[in-house]
Amino acid sequence: MQLFLCPFCPPVPSVLDEFHIRGRQATIELARAAGLDSTKHVLDVGSGVGGPSRCIAREFGCRVTGIDLTDEYCRVAFMLAERIGLSRLVSYQQGDALNLPFPDRTFDVVWSQHAAMNIAYKETLYREMYRVLKPGGVLAIYDILAGPAGQIIFPVPWARRPETNFLVTPDELRRLLEESGFKILAWEDTTSAAKDWFASMAWNIQQGGLPTLGFHVLLGPDFQTMVQNQRQSLEKGRMILVQVVGSK
Ligand SMILES: C[S@@+](CC[C@H](N)C(=O)[O-])C[C@H]1O[C@@H](n2cnc3c(N)ncnc32)[C@H](O)[C@@H]1O
User: Fold this and answer.
1) Is 210 part of a structural domain of the chain?
2) Are 7 and 15 in contact (CB under 8 A)?
3) Which domain holds residue 27?
4) β-pairing, 133-146 with 107-113?
5) Is 69's C-beta closer than 6 angstroms to any atom of ligand 1?
6) Residue 15's pLDDT band (boundaries 50, 70, 90)?
């Protein structure tokens, strides 16, 4: 696997704490598109073990609150933040994206990467994101969507079977966001970059085998099948990647 080294950071590779396609590169791109800076308080919905939140806090100086369904992820995220001296800027709490435990109009930016594909009730998800965003605030999303050429190939990291896969098409996402009240400011299809990333990962595994530390540690023995399935789904036009920036 090729490790992406953040151009701003000390040489610490983002091996598995950015649990989404294209890792830290995608996080930096979304942060720039969303105009993050030290005046912003960001809510990271589905924050996982916190790689993206620590990255944007460190590189852009923003304050980040992460929320995730999995309590253990939140505890690991905070432990890592403390170890690298970021606990002043980031915090995590267990909670459900469908019932965000925050008052209306709390955050300057609502951010989410690769969390929506497991969430069936998308009307509620985006309505909640809209509710906790301040007027004029920014929505920043990086997600996997359903492509036009049929069902994705299973298993994938977020679903072993179709019953737990909740990808929507680009048209459906647009409609969901607009019906929730968001104005879409920028919409970028990053499928081609995702194809390149998977090709590079496959080549690296072919050349050197699996690294000691990588996504396979989280995903288990099906990791290589999941990589192949995502790659094929991308190539066949069944899965696409988008970066979307909106406003309230
Ligand atoms: C693929 S991981 C992405 C983690 C992180 N955004 C990143 O890019 O590194 C998806 C995360 O979404 C969380 N998640 C799924 N459904 C959720 C929900 N309803 N509310 C909050 N978090 C949720 C999962 O627990 C998981 O940590």
Assistant:
1) yes
2) no
3) 23-247
4) parallel
5) yes
6) low
10 lies in a domain? no
Q: pTM for the whole thing? A: 0.93
- Kindly report the CATH number assigned to the domain that includes residue 150: 3.40.50.150
> Looking at the domain assignment, is residue 15 inside a domain?
no
20 CA from centroid of ligand 1 (Å) = 10
- Which numbered atom of ligand 1 lies nearest the CA of 27? 8
Which of 47, 68, 123, 127 for a ligand 1 pocket mutation test, highest count of atoms within 8 Å of Cβ?
68
Please give the Cα distance from 222 to 28 (Å, whole number).
29
Q: Which of 102, 85, 96 is nearest to 137 (CA)?
A: 102
- Report the separation in Å between the CA atom of 5 and the middle of ligand 1, taken as the mean of its atom positions: 23
Neighbours of 110 (CB within 10 A): 28
- Nearest atom in ligand 1 to the alpha carbon of residue 70 is 25
Q: For the chain, give the percent of residues with pLDDT over 90.
A: 83
Burial class (CB in 10 A: 0-12, 13-18, 19+), 1: buried
Lowest mean pLDDT among 91-100, 123-132, 211-220, 225-234: 211-220
Angle at 10 between CA 9 and CA 15, to 5 degrees: 80
pLDDT attached to residue 208? 78
Residue range 193-209, pLDDT digits in tens: 999 999 998 888 888 77
- pLDDT tens digits along 154-184: 999 999 999 999 999 999 999 999 999 999 9
